[in-house]
Structure formats: C-alpha cells, structure tokens
Amino acid sequence: MTREVHAFVYSALPSRVIFGAGRRADVAAELARLGCARPLIVTTHDQRMLGEALAHPFRDATLFSDATMHTPWDVTQRALHETARARADCVVAIGGGSSIGLSKAIALQTDLPQIVLPTTYAGSEVTPIIGETRDGEKRTQRTPKVLPEVVIYDVELTLSLPLAMSVASGLNAIAHAVEALYAEDRNPITSMMAEDAIASLAKALPNIAHTSDSIDARRLAQYGAWLGGTCLGMVGMGLHHKICHVLGGTFDLPHAQTHAVMLAHVVAYNAAAAPHAMTSIARALHTKDAWSGLHDLAKSLGAPLSLEALGMPEAGIDHALELVMRNAYSNPRAPEARALRIMLERAWKGEPPATAD
Ligand code: NAD
To answer: Do 187 and 261 share a domain, yes or no?
Structure first.
C-alpha cells in the first residue's frame, strides 16, 4: 500500500504516554517527576470509588467527584474553589472525557500540570482541545494550556466500562480517525495513525462484545483510542464533529452515542468528495465501502442507530440544521441544506445512511 503524500505541515504535540496493565501504580512516580505532592483528583460521581482508591496513598490528596459531561461552567467554578482551598499543585483525572474535561478546565484557569488516566475511548487526554458549556452553549477552543502532561493508559481501568458504552466510545474514537483522513491539514503521519486506529478498533470492539475475557481486545481498543485521539489533537475535524457538537450541546445528547449514530451518515455524505479517505477506511474495515462498513459495524455491535432513541425531539431537526449551516468549517463536501436535512431526518429515524446528493 502506498500512501498519498502531498506538501504538509507536521506539528507533534508534547505528551508523555505510559501504556500497560497496572500502570496506574505509576502515578506516585509521575507526581514526583513533576515535583508535585498535593494532587486534586477529579472524577465523576459514578467513578468516585476509583478516585478514592487513587487518592488513598497520598496524604495531601483531595478528591472532587462531580465531573459532568460537556464541562458545565458551574461545576468548574466549584472545582476551582476546591483547588484553591486544598492548595493543589496538580490535577489527576481518572475517568472518561467528562473527568478529563474538568481537569483541562482547571488547567486552563490555573496552569497546573495534569496526569490523566482515561477509562473510555474518547481520546480527550491527548488533545489540546477543551469544550465548556456556559449559559446553554458549548464553546470549544484549542490551547496548549490544556494538553495533559502525562497520560497513563491502564487497560485494567477499562474492564468495567459497560459494553454499550464501550461500543459507543469506540465508535467515537473511530470518528476522530475517519475525519482525520479527509482533514485539510492532514499529513502522512496522522493518516497512518488514523488507518491503524480504525483497524484496531474495528478488530477489538467485536471481540469485546463477544468474549468474556476481553483484556487483549480492551488493550487493542485502548491503543486505537490513543491513535484516534492523537489525530483529533493534531488536525482539524469536519462535518461529523460539527454536527455532534451541535446535537450534544443543544439537546444535551450523550456524547459518544451521538457520534455512534451519526458517523456512517456523515461518511456517506462525504463519500464522493473524499475518495482517498474512503479507500483507507474501507481497507481498515476490510469492507467494500466505507460508509456501509461503518454502518454494519455499528449495527452488529448493537450501537444506538437513531437520534430519537437518544432523546432528541424531532422538532429540533430544523434548529440543528440552522446551527450546522451557520459557521464555516473545513469539510470535503460543502454543507448543502437539503441533503443535510435528509441526513438528519434519516439519522433521527434510525434509517440507514443514503449516499443521495
Ligand atoms: P464520560 O466521561 O461522560 O463517561 C460516561 C459515563 O461512563 C460516566 O458516567 C462515567 O462515570 C462512566 N465511565 C467511564 N469510564 C468507565 C469505566 N471504565 N467503567 C465504568 N464506568 C465508566 O464519557 P466520554 O464519552 O468518555 O466523554 C464525553 C465528554 O468528553 C464530553 O463532554 C465530550 O465533549 C468530551 N470530549 C472531549 C474531547 C476533547 O478533545 N476535548 C474529546 C472527546 C470527548
């Protein structure tokens, strides 16, 4: 296989990645390496026990377990108050994108270093991106200030991730890789990582779904998630991420599941405009074409297929379309209101994608 190579700019992001079963035990050594002794440990309410276990060995650790999806501003304010009260000198996040989002929000305001231990496949841990929700609107920015200093991928932390969430989160990671393959600012390294991310996750997710002892599959999924997240951090995303951002922020839909529903639809929409990307995706999936391969994968894994099932009101389609059409963003195919409306209607109803133009 020969990769397409054009002129490109490649800017690597600084990140120390520690990958392996049991490596959460490295937190103490990493804190010492950063010269920190008073960690604020952040997680969600559901993962509080995990946060407590992580905090246990440290005399001066403080636990904050109210991390919430889409990083609401009021939660960040409370966490900042706790950071100041505890005189924390670093943030340690354990959890999915919600916990890591809060860690980034604290780092943005305080410049404290971060050690993060991801437990889903969302990929936020390796991106300089932060989305925050304030007054009902989710705003995203890119700034190196929020890129975590240390990432510890301990596969054992993902074993408890429920199957439905594993599948949706895995498709979320695939979505980062898919859009990296047609990003305007892609480069041969991100394309290489993206294809490997899709292949790894497409192999791992069915094994997670169908085997009881899935540690090997979980390890492969986590590796794919790292690659997908790295792509997200390095190149610009297109229509798919724009739509999911609008739907998540406007209707408070669950992040990973929204990605799972929309991905095959957007790939079908973009198919004719991004032939190289489609070839890579199909090659990684071992399928005839990209969009049907993604649709079949999601369906076979029991992923949610309709926006209605996620709680989006049908009347919201017009508002979503208006927001998607509003701001310019890079995408291989220009946003066409009529085709996008059809796409959103089909996704809302749970119908298979159409390559109609
Ligand atoms: P999440 O972090 O909200 O986790 C979903 C639920 O699963 C939570 O209740 C959590 O406690 C639970 N959970 C997580 N890991 C678990 C495990 N191993 N075992 C059992 N339960 C577990 O979901 P997510 O999809 O990882 O993150 C979504 C958030 O991340 C959104 O706010 C999204 O915008 C953000 N995000 C940001 C970026 C970025 O680069 N800035 C990238 C991806 C996602």
So the answer is: yes
